[in-house]
């Protein structure tokens, strides 16, 4: 277990009192025309509230199922995906997004339920119950078969039955497993499932952006983790500028546990600038955590985890005087957009223009602006200002289990040539072998280039209430 802190301390001639936003939303829906380029890798600008980052390796343990949509039967693979965790570790997942395709080698981010389709799904807790009570969490297949009264189960049929039961709750899908034992398992899991709470993040830092005047401690930033310990190691460049990571009393921290509070200790003589903190640990990611694609790719839910590297980051901005902004963002599935939160811990108003709308945050106040983003739309949103200030937010809004055009006749539960720009590894080689007459998802037939949201865009502006720090 270890932690890395990277600090970028830049000289600014004065605090930025006015921020001008240059905003561009890129509507990039996965298409056949763009498939050759493949998925873009996740980078530091992609919204992530912390946890594991992983690469999809594909569907590994599966059998067949039949999905009925629009009066047609589609034979599809159903089972367990596997992912490789950045920094070390392996994950097993199931699909909770049957009508959307996966992208080969797509990057996935551990994500809160309310930033996926699970946030509006009253049965989300039942999906977690299924994961806790079936394969691979229950690896004694004889015992599982006896409990469910299915007859003999193999890993493939157990995976298929579990996936089918999940689809019935995640997508309200009319789907059955082809194998009789797998179908009995799916029926048993569906009937037995109970709503259980969402699991907590494997690691997060809250909030992930703070600001204030030089000559004090900026924070607190609370550590939330299932790991036994998170190590803290400030980098050499931060130490050279006198920046330290401490507790509230100013004691430098080398290791923390769940509930610990971190502070950026910035000396009075520090030049105006910022530093980014990245905490890392090794832990088993909780079953039931959602994983959303950094690009448009079928949403997954965690079925099992090895000891894996997890991380989270937070940024501090400081100045001697003037407006001192802290900017953060997260998806808002309830309102169909991206929440941009701007807090001002300075002693002067902080003003900025966001796609034709001017906003002013008084000294000591915080505001959240919700930017409308279409379902399945990728965004690349940069806010720039004087003295070199810049903040970029990237991601894709994927809050529903069907694309913007509604459900397609042909589901995709694994990478396909049409959606991924590569080959798939189904039972007979690719989705064309599933028995469907159309193996290309509708979502892969629509191309949207760059979409600029102009002055007609609607924003929701609200005051962020101050909440007491949780002990």
Word description of this protein:
There is one protein chain. The protein is mainly β and 471 residues long. It is 12% helix and 36% strand. β24 and β25 form a beta hairpin. α1 (124-132) runs antiparallel to α3 and α3 packs across α4.
Integer average pLDDT: 79
Strand order of the largest sheet: 3-4-5-17-16-6
Strand content: 35-45%
The helicity comes to: 10-25%
Total beta strands:
26
End-to-end Cα distance, whole Å, is: 24 Å
- What's the multimeric state? single chain
How many helical elements?
Answer: 6
Low-confidence stretches: 1-43, 403-471
> Describe the biggest sheet?
6 strands, antiparallel, barrel
Rough shape? elongated
Indicate the radius of gyration in whole angstroms.
Answer: 23 Å
Q: Structural class from helices and strands? A: mainly beta
